[in-house]
Amino acid sequence: MGSQPGALSVRSRPITGALVGCVGASALAAVVAGFVGGFRGTGSVAIVSVVVLAYFVSGQIVESLALGFADVTGLAIVLASYAVRVGLLGIVLWWAVSHPGLTGWTRPVWVVVGALASVIGWLAGLVTGHARSRVAIYDQPYRAPAGWDE
């Protein structure tokens, strides 16, 4: 009989997989951007990958705090957080592409590639982590109603 994973490891395995997937995909995109787009491409991918990673990590923090609420409050917190984070992410990405001080340092194509690589890596790692998680489920053994076995 093997040991059952604790509640913390069951919750952290998907997040760890997502973090590894996001960083791995971002690193791969940065290497490709370095060969194709030079320093500006690598810088663009690195900047946007950090922004997307901050978006996901902040979401996980809010969701872990919202799990403490047993009513609709937790759902409201998560949805409000999502709306705020999506809005901020859009503003930051728009600013990174259109700000005159940053246009010399970033390339819009590599900003998009970096964002997509980060998101795809995060989601792939999250799915892989959930697929590999082992959640202990305890069911009561079946008992036939009285009189059925006679």
UniProtKB/TrEMBL annotation:
What keywords is this UniProt entry annotated with? Answer: Membrane, Transmembrane, Transmembrane helix
Q: Looking at the keywords, is Membrane present?
A: yes
Task: Report what the protein is called.
Answer: ATP synthase protein I
Any stretches that span the bilayer, and where are they? 15-36, 42-62, 74-97, 109-127
Q: Which domain of life is it from?
A: Bacteria
Q: What is the lineage of its organism?
A: Bacteria, Bacillati, Actinomycetota, Actinomycetes, Propionibacteriales
